[in-house]
Write a structure and sequence with these properties.
By secondary structure, this protein is mainly alpha-helical. 79% of the residues lie in helices and 0% in strands. The chain has one domain (5-116). It has helices at 5-16, 22-35, 40-77, 81-112, 123-129. The radius of gyration is 18 Å and the shape is elongated.
Length: 130
């Protein structure tokens, strides 16, 4: 896919929008809707970014509620396995946040280089669904 410097910048911005939480989804979606006819390059990157960010929000909400359940269970049943569960959930959350950030940064760098990018594990699913 051919891309101009503007195309590459908009594609990178759509990936980096993940650092803006829900506003990032809106930003990437606006970029996708406004530029999908203009550039297949932007459309591909913005579509990947929107899909990935939506999946991160959904999985994060489910994991957050699960972590809240572990913490609440620890409060009711006392320390012990529940405390280990809280620590495990916290470590899992931090590792996940780091991996999500790395994926978004790699996507942005690849976009700036004018190359295609698909998010690991979910990229093909996003392409099939949208």
């Amino acid at each position: 896919m051919e891309s101009t410097s503007e195309d590459r910048i908009l594609a990178a911005v759509s990936h980096l929008g993940i650092f803006l939480n829900l506003l990032g989804i809106v930003l990437a979606l606006i970029i996708y809707l406004l530029k999908q006819e203009h550039s297949k390059f932007i459309a591909h990157h913005a579509k990947q970014a929107v899909g990935f960010q939506l999946i991160v929000v959904i999985v994060g909400a489910i994991a957050g509620f699960s972590g809240f359940g572990v913490a609440l269970g620890s409060l009711f049943f006392g320390p012990g396995p529940g405390a280990v569960g809280i620590i495990g959930v916290a470590v899992f959350f931090w590792l996940t946040i780091v991996l999500v950030a790395i994926c978004a940064i790699v996507g942005a760098v690849r976009a700036l280089m004018g190359k295609d990018f698909q998010y690991p594990l979910v990229g093909e699913l996003i392409d099939r669904v949208v």
